[in-house]
């Protein structure tokens, strides 16, 4: 028999707030695609909703999940980066189909930066590496890590941490059902990885 495994959990939250310095595009939509590590060299891809290129490029969307696993897997998660991509999709059909999306800018934020920040929370503007043109798009994001005692204390004092707490998440191998399909897939994949 080996040494007992120590298990740990974290609550991780990502917020995609808004973008600026984006070259205007006609007849299309913008969205942010982001990638999370799911362990075992797997990643999860999530997209924000698409918004018109004529809008103010404000999403203000949150995604949170509870991560459960061994202490080693939690430490590994903290060493990973979240990759953010600003993308544009032409909504004018070509040959009767709407095509794929075009990458406009990309950036990464390490979870370690969040875990080492005051209150394990950051909100900041990040300059993206532009793939086209000379304008460098900027993306405002928020990231937060909480340990279970902090989450429970905050639930008692505020009612609930955020809109995802009672609607979307995984615990003890079960995912709550009012998440979108892609969110359930992402949460299930993360839970299986740990």
UniProtKB/TrEMBL annotation:
<dbReference type="InterPro" id="IPR035892">
    <property type="entry name" value="C2_domain_sf"/>
</dbReference>
<feature type="domain" description="C2">
    <location>
        <begin position="1"/>
        <end position="126"/>
    </location>
</feature>
<dbReference type="InterPro" id="IPR057458">
    <property type="entry name" value="GRDP_C2"/>
</dbReference>
<dbReference type="Pfam" id="PF25334">
    <property type="entry name" value="C2_GRDP"/>
</dbReference>
<dbReference type="InterPro" id="IPR000008">
    <property type="entry name" value="C2_dom"/>
</dbReference>
<protein>
    <recommendedName>
        <fullName>C2 domain-containing protein</fullName>
    </recommendedName>
</protein>
């Amino acid at each position: 028999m080996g040494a007992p495994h120590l298990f740990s959990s974290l609550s991780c939250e990502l917020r995609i707030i808004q973008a600026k310095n984006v070259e205007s595009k006609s007849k299309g939509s913008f969205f942010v695609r982001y990638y999370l590590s799911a362990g075992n060299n797997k990643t999860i891809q999530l997209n924000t909703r698409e918004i018109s290129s004529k809008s103010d490029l404000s999403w203000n969307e949150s995604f949170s999940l509870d991560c459960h696993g061994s202490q080693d897997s939690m430490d590994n998660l903290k060493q990973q980066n979240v990759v953010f991509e600003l993308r544009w999709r032409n909504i004018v059909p070509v040959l009767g189909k709407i095509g794929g999306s075009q990458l406009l800018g990309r950036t990464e934020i390490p979870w370690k930066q969040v875990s080492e920040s005051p209150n394990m929370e950051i909100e900041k503007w990040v300059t993206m590496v532009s793939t086209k043109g000379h304008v460098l798009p900027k993306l405002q994001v928020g990231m937060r890590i909480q340990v279970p005692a902090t989450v429970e204390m905050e639930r008692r004092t505020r009612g609930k941490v955020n809109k995802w707490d009672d609607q979307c998440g995984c615990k003890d191998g079960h995912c709550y059902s009012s998440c979108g399909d892609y969110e359930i897939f992402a949460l299930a994949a993360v839970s299986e990885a740990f």
